[in-house]
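Dear colleague,

Following up on yesterday's call, I've attached the two folding results inline so they're easy to grep. Please treat them as preliminary; we haven't cross-checked anything against experimental data yet. The first protein's sequence and structure tokens come first.
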Amino acid sequence: MPLGAAAAQSYDENPSGHALYVLLDGRLTASDGEPAWLPGGFGKARFGGGQNGDTRFRARPVEANVVWQPRLTWSLDATIAVTAQQGQEHPVDLSEAYLSYRHDPVGPWRASARLGLMWPPVSLEHSGPAWSVTDTISPSAINAWIGEEVKAAAAEASLSRKLGEGRVTGTVALFGFNDTAGTLLAFRGWALHDEKATAFGQQPLPPLDAFMQTAQAPKTRPVIELDNRPGFYAKLGWSGAKANVAAFYYDNRGDPEAVDEYLQWGWRTRFANLSVRLDPDPNTTIRAQAMTGSTRMGYSMNGRIWVDTGFRSAFLMATRQVAHSANISGRIEAFGTRGRGSVLGSQTSEDGWAGTLAAKRGFGDHVMVLAELLHVESRRDDRARIGLAPRQRQTVAQLAVRVSR
């Protein structure tokens, strides 16, 4: 049984109890190509190569999570997640903290709500405890970006109704503390990794040009409120026995001229996301997501704002169960950005693609082993500014052992 399913089952059997989960993740990795993005670069993966792009081997613990989910009443739950991630600013930080409400169904209608610090319901890949990816190690570029920059303090409500053989669900939310979403996409571009934003941490940016060094902080803080203007998101989905389809729209309504004393800027970021999940047979799952959007920041210069970056990405992924507690997955994706600003112009545009192969095997109820091979290629002319070749390619092999209790 998958870890997430086992946790949910034990929790539902104890409606007056407190579910406490501990999840540990250790890795063996081999990676070549350009350096990782976490030290402050343009890298596309969590782990990079050594000098001259030669292969580096590593063995290290990368993440630990403690998730507490008390059931306060039959209809009200809480989730508090604390995480320690290798490479993050703070050794230990708050990851999520929210209340969940479920209305007992009466007739065809169901209602639910969430309130607190959380990720919006975008990802098709993060279905495990502590917002973890379940069938691969690295999520797609789309959902890696959601994890690193699109976390908010939100008030979310959902209403669903049975329709024929399926169910239609609508979700709306107002949120704050996500004014800097888009910073990493504009300055670094897309990446594929499983680092997640925390409540009080910051994410490093690649070396800034001479103008931006005086205007923008070298690190971005994903969870911050700058303009006191609430954003919103909305989702409409249909789910049936063998298919799920959903459309999602996000607008943080950020003021692109809002800036604090630490040079954290407001970014006006909007995107639309379409997701499809198909289950053609009990052993096969096909998932696809496509996203398009834009992000803007700064003042107008010569009729153009400093930063005006369009972005888009899409992936197709198939997962096949090959034995009890074992499956294999393959994913192919493409991504790109377009710089149209007066400071971040066409030299910051990028195009790329990535392919991922992964295998997962469970050992009992508490141990999961995943193996993954990720290859990514991209071109970004802005790399030449710091002496890197505009076109980069990289292969990362990872073996992860996840222990939960």
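Below is the second protein, in the same order (sequence, then structure):
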Amino acid sequence: MKNLSPQRFEKKNISEEEMAGGSFTAGAVTKERAEQYKGRVTAYVIIACIVAATGGSLFGYDIGISGGVTSMDDFLERFFPSVYKQKKRAHENGYCKYDNQLLAAFTSSLYIAGLIASLFASRVTRKYGRRTSIIAGGISFLIGATINASAVNLTMLIFGRVLLGIGIGLGNQAVPLYLSEMAPTHLRGGLNMMFQVATTLGIFTANMVNYGTQRIKPWGWRLSLGLAAVPALLMTIGGIFLPDTPNSLLERGYIEEGRKLLEKIRGTSDVEAEFQDMVEASEVANSIKHPFRNLLEKRSRPELVMSIFMPTFQILTGINSILFYAPVLFQSMGFGGDASLVSSALTGGVLAFSTFISIATVDKLGRRVLLISGGIQMIICQNLEA
């Protein structure tokens, strides 16, 4: 890779200090040539994005499947007999019948493992490429799903959940990045949201699977847990045949390979403007010596605060708890087994439908409009519940 020199950026009035300190961003480089980008949406891009977005279905499927499985009598009787007895005794009041630390460990072990894995996932993705992280995440999830489906004791069950969490940590970090780097700039918002679409469809699919497998006695829960291997297998096989992104190749110094891949995914050899922006943005990014330390500096504080608090406040609305434990919550409210799973499926269906609306409007209306309208809807719904 060519060495970064201040002379290359003199026409943009960018100082060496700004580049080293991190105040200069890739956006400053790309704005001047963005209108010169050529290319089209090739079938290659669409297929690559669909396969990569399958990673979102892994996360969504597990969100939807765990709550349904923990409401199944056969599953509780085998692994959590004390919870099963409480459930059978609590005919009139469902409060606290699922209060069990081991049951909580079964659910939370995946997300704790995912949190820890995500701390290392960015380094793996940066050093070895997005494709490597996708494949590794798919393999880990595939093994975890197999162990869970064949579990004979609680240790196997939780170990399988930990492997699922590692897979989610790798996949959730690499897949959105892969989608955004493969997509043409004018469709980046919509294609990047394919990850969210896959997540919501995974939740909906899991709810429907639980509705069917609860009738299969006594091993229906094994089928529910084991079917997580299907999207994991698709993501792993797809990852083997997928290329890495041009950005990732440039980031690791493969300049010519990155250009050839960009020409292939854009369907044209006239990619000079976009390729040059990628090269310059990569050089600027590599010139920043302490990126995480720079986040704590005053100039980066507004972005840092918003990036932390926006998802935090969304989670504090309680939506994640509803998605994780929907069948259990509905049962505790007095719904029967079938009714609780149907209610969960309806919730997942609404979530998936709203995601498609976002895809259709995100590149036309912009991110800010969707953010504000979504916030207003949440405020109204929270007040109605209160």
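For the second protein, one point worth flagging: The radius of gyration is 23 Å.

Best wishes,
A.L.
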